[in-house]
Write a structure and sequence with these properties.
three-stranded parallel sheet, 10 helices, 41% helix, 11 strands, 278 residues, Rossmann fold, 2 domains, alpha/beta
Length: 278
C-alpha cells in the first residue's frame, strides 16, 4: 500500500500558483457569496479566503441573510459579472431551500465560474473543450498523474453522481481511456461491482461505505468523502481495514481535500486569464 499524499502535491501546486500570481499585471480577485448561516459553509469560506491570501489572490466575501431572495442574489451576481475588477465568482453551496441552485449558478458569467458548474463549463467538459473544470475532480486527476497511474483500460467506478464531483470525474477518467461505471443511491449490489474495479472513487458522504470485502486486491482507492463522526473527520472508506489491500489510497483528511483548495486557486487564475489575456 502506498499513501497518496494530497498535502504534499497541493503544497507544490500552491507554490506554483503563488509564483504565477506574482507575474500577473494585477492581482486576481475572487468574489465569494455565502447565503445563510450553515456552519460547514462558514468553515469552507474561511479556508478558501486563507488559501487565496497565502498565494496573493484578493478576495471579497459577501455574507447574505438566510431570507435573501433569489432575485436579489442573482442581481448581485449580474453586477459582479459586469465588474471588471472581479475575475472569479464562487457561490458557496448549499443555498437556502427557497433558492434554485441551477438558476443561481447559471446566472454567473461562465468565464468567472470558478467552480466550473455553469452549464457552459459542464458542456465544455463533456466535449473535452477548454473551460473551467470543478476543483475536486481536477484535483483527483492531478493526484493520479502525480503517481504516474495510467488509466488506459482500467475498470473504474465512481460512487456518486453529483455535478460537482461524480459526473465530472467520470468524464475525466473516460477521457483517459478508463472503462467507467457510475454508481449511486439506487445502485443494486454495489459490492459486486466494486470488487471488480481497479479504481474506486467514492464521493457520497457516508462513513465506512467502502469496507475491505468490497475492494479488489491491489485496487486504487480515492476517498472524496468528508464526514464528521464523534468530533473527527473521516471519509467514505473504512481506511484502517481497506488500506493494506490497496496499491494506492488517499487518506481523509490529507488526500483529496487539500487538492480541492489548490485547484480552486488554479481556477481563479484561469478565470483571470480568460478575462485579462484577450
Amino acid at each position: 500500500m502506498y499513501l497518496i499524499d494530497g498535502k504534499e502535491i497541493a503544497k507544490k501546486i500552491r507554490s506554483e500558483v503563488k509564483e504565477e500570481v506574482k507575474a500577473l499585471k494585477k492581482k486576481p480577485h475572487l468574489l465569494v457569496i455565502w447565503v445563510g448561516n450553515d456552519l460547514a459553509s462558514q468553515s469552507y469560506v474561511t479556508s478558501k479566503e486563507k488559501a487565496c491570501k497565502n498565494v496573493g489572490i484578493e478576495t471579497t466575501t459577501l455574507h447574505l441573510d438566510e431570507d435573501t431572495s433569489q432575485r436579489e442574489l442573482i442581481q448581485i451576481i449580474q453586477e459582479a459579472n459586469q465588474n471588471s475588477n472581479i475575475h472569479a465568482i464562487l457561490v458557496q453551496m448549499p443555498l437556502p431551500n427557497h433558492m434554485d441552485e441551477r438558476k443561481v449558478i447559471d446566472a454567473i458569467d461562465p468565464k468567472k465560474d470558478v467552480d466550473g458548474l455553469h452549464q457552459v463549463n459542464q458542456g465544455k467538459l463533456m466535449l473535452n473543450m477548454p473551460g473551467i473544470i470543478p476543483a475536486t475532480p481536477k484535483g483527483i486527476m492531478k493526484l493520479i498523474d502525480a503517481y504516474n497511474v495510467d488509466l488506459t483500460g482500467k475498470n473504474a467506478i465512481v460512487i456518486g453522481r453529483s455535478m460537482l464531483v461524480g459526473k465530472p470525474i467520470a468524464i475525466l477518467m473516460l477521457q483517459r481511456n478508463a472503462t467507467v461505471t457510475i454508481a449511486h443511491s439506487k445502485t443494486k449490489n454495489l459490492s459486486e461491482l466494486t470488487k471488480q474495479m481497479d479504481v474506486i472513487v467514492s464521493a457520497v458522504g457516508k462513513p465506512k461505505l467502502i469496507t475491505v470485502d468490497m475492494v479488489k486486491e491491489g485496487a486504487i482507492v480515492i476517498d472524496v468523502g468528508i464526514n464528521r463522526v464523534l468530533g473527527t473527520i473521516v471519509g467514505d472508506v473504512d481506511y484502517l481495514s481497506v488500506a493494506d489491500k490497496t496499491s494506492r489510497i488517499t487518506p481523509v483528511p490529507g488526500g483529496v481535500g487539500p487538492m480541492t483548495i489548490a485547484c480552486l486557486l488554479e481556477n481563479v487564475v484561469e478565470c483571470y486569464r480568460f478575462l485579462e489575456d484577450k
